[in-house]
C-alpha cells in the first residue's frame, strides 16, 4: 500500500476518536489521510450528484439555506479567489474550472474579465449553467473530454482534488492543457489545519458521505505536483468566514451536506443553527487559527515548469 500523493509505504490504520468503528489510513511521511473508499474506488455517480446539488431539488427552507450560505460564505470567497487569480494571470486570460458546479464561481471570473470554461459531470447542473448563466460548460469528466492541448492560462481545481480517485492521472492531463508557464490553482482541505486533530472524524471534511477519497496535507500536495511537472509558487489561507463556517458545522456533525440535502429536515435545522448561532465563536477560532498560520482549506498556486 502506497500513499497516493507522496508514494510512501508508511501507511498505517487510524481508529476514530468518537466513532470507534471508523478506520482511516494515515501516511506517516506526508500526513495525508486516506479513506477506505479510495481502495474500493466507489466513485460519485451523476445520479447522486444531481440529487444533492441540483438547484431544482431544493425547495422552501432548503433553498433559503442555500441562498444564505451563498450570500454570506460562498460568494464573498469566490470574489476573493478571483482577485487572487487576477494577480497571477493577465486580464482576459483563458481558464478552465474543473467541476464548476452551479457556475457561480465561473460567472464571477467572467465578470473579472477572464475567458472561462467549465467541466461538470452532473447533466442538470450543466444545463442550468448553460441556459441560465450563458456559460460554456463541457459535460463529462476531464479524463473523457478531448480538450485542446496548451489552451489555458489556468486550470482551477476548487473543492475537486480530494474527490479524485486518480489524482496523478488528472494532474498529467491538466499539465497538457496548460500553456507554457500556466497555472494550476487548487482549493483543498488540508490535514495541516488545527481543526483536523481537534475534531477528527467529526470534522466537516471527514463526514462519512462527503465523497472524499482522501484529505491531503500541504506536503503531500507539493510532492505530487512537483512529480507531475509543476512548481509550487504560493499557499494562501481561505477567508475567515470559511474557517468559521467549517468550525461551526463540525461542532454539529448532523449538518453535513449529505444529510442536509436529503429529506432529513432535522439535519437542515442543525445546519442553520451551526451557521448562525455559532458564527461568533467560529470567528474567534478562525482568528486564532489564521494567526497560527493554518486554515481548514488552502489555496495552492502551482506553475507549469
Summarize the structure.
With about 300 residues, the chain is α/β, with parallel strands linked by helices. About 40% of the residues lie in helices and about 20% in strands.
What does this structure look like?
The longest helix has 26 residues, at 61-86. The protein has twelve helices and eleven strands. The protein has a seven-stranded mixed beta sheet, with helices on both faces. It is globular, with a radius of gyration of 18 Å. Helix 6 (167-177) links the parallel strand 7 (152-158) and strand 8 (178-189). The chain has a single domain (45-190, 228-304), classed as Vaccinia Virus protein VP39 (Rossmann fold, 3-Layer(aba) Sandwich). It starts with 10 loop residues before the first strand and ends with a strand. The protein is of the alpha/beta class and 305 residues long.
Question: How many helices?
Answer: 12
Task: Report how far the terminal alpha carbons are from each other.
Answer: 30 Å
Strand adjacency order, main sheet: 6-5-4-7-8-11-10
Biggest β-sheet strands, sense, barrel: 7 strands, mixed
Strand-pairing-aware structural class: alpha/beta
Quickly name the level 1 CATH class. Alpha Beta
Topology, number of strands: 11
pLDDT averaged residue by residue: 83
> What's the number of structural domains?
1
Round the Cα radius of gyration to an integer and report it.
Answer: 18 Å
* Strand residues, percent: 15-25%
Shape: globular
H-E string: EEEHHHEHEHEEHEHEHEHHHHE
Amino acid at each position: 500500500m502506497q500513499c497516493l500523493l507522496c508514494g510512501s509505504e508508511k501507511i498505517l490504520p487510524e481508529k476514530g476518536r468518537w466513532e470507534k468503528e471508523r478506520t482511516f489510513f494515515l501516511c506517516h511521511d506526508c500526513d495525508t489521510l486516506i479513506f477506505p473508499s479510495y481502495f474500493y474506488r466507489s466513485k460519485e455517480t451523476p445520479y447522486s450528484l444531481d440529487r444533492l446539488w441540483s438547484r431544482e431539488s431544493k425547495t422552501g427552507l432548503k433553498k433559503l439555506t442555500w441562498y444564505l450560505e451563498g450570500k454570506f460564505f460562498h460568494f464573498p470567497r469566490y470574489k476573493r479567489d478571483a482577485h487572487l487569480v487576477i494577480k497571477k494571470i493577465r486580464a482576459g486570460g483563458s481558464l478552465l474550472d474543473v467541476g464548476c458546479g452551479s457556475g457561480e464561481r465561473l460567472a464571477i471570473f467572467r465578470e473579472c474579465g477572464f475567458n472561462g470554461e467549465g467541466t461538470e459531470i452532473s447533466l442538470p447542473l450543466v444545463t442550468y449553467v448553460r441556459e441560465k448563466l450563458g456559460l460554456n460548460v463541457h459535460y463529462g469528466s476531464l479524463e473523457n473530454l478531448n480538450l485542446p492541448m496548451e489552451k489555458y492560462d489556468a486550470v482551477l481545481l476548487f473543492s475537486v482534488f480530494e474527490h479524485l480517485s486518480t489524482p496523478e492521472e488528472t494532474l498529467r492531463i491538466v499539465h497538457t492543457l496548460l500553456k507554457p508557464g500556466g497555472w494550476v490553482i487548487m482549493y483543498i482541505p488540508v490535514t495541516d489545519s488545527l481543526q483536523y486533530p481537534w475534531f477528527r472524524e467529526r470534522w466537516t471534511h471527514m463526514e462519512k458521505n462527503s465523497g472524499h477519497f482522501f484529505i491531503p496535507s500541504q506536503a503531500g500536495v507539493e510532492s505530487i505536483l512537483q512529480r507531475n511537472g509543476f512548481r509550487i509558487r504560493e499557499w494562501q489561507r481561505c477567508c475567515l468566514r470559511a474557517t468559521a463556517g467549517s468550525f461551526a458545522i463540525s461542532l454539529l456533525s448532523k449538518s453535513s451536506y449529505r444529510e442536509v440535502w436529503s429529506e432529513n429536515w432535522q439535519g437542515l435545522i442543525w445546519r442553520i443553527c451551526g451557521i448562525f448561532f455559532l458564527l461568533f465563536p467560529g470567528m474567534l477560532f478562525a482568528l486564532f487559527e489564521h494567526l497560527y498560520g493554518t486554515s481548514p482549506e488552502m489555496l495552492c498556486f502551482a506553475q507549469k515548469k
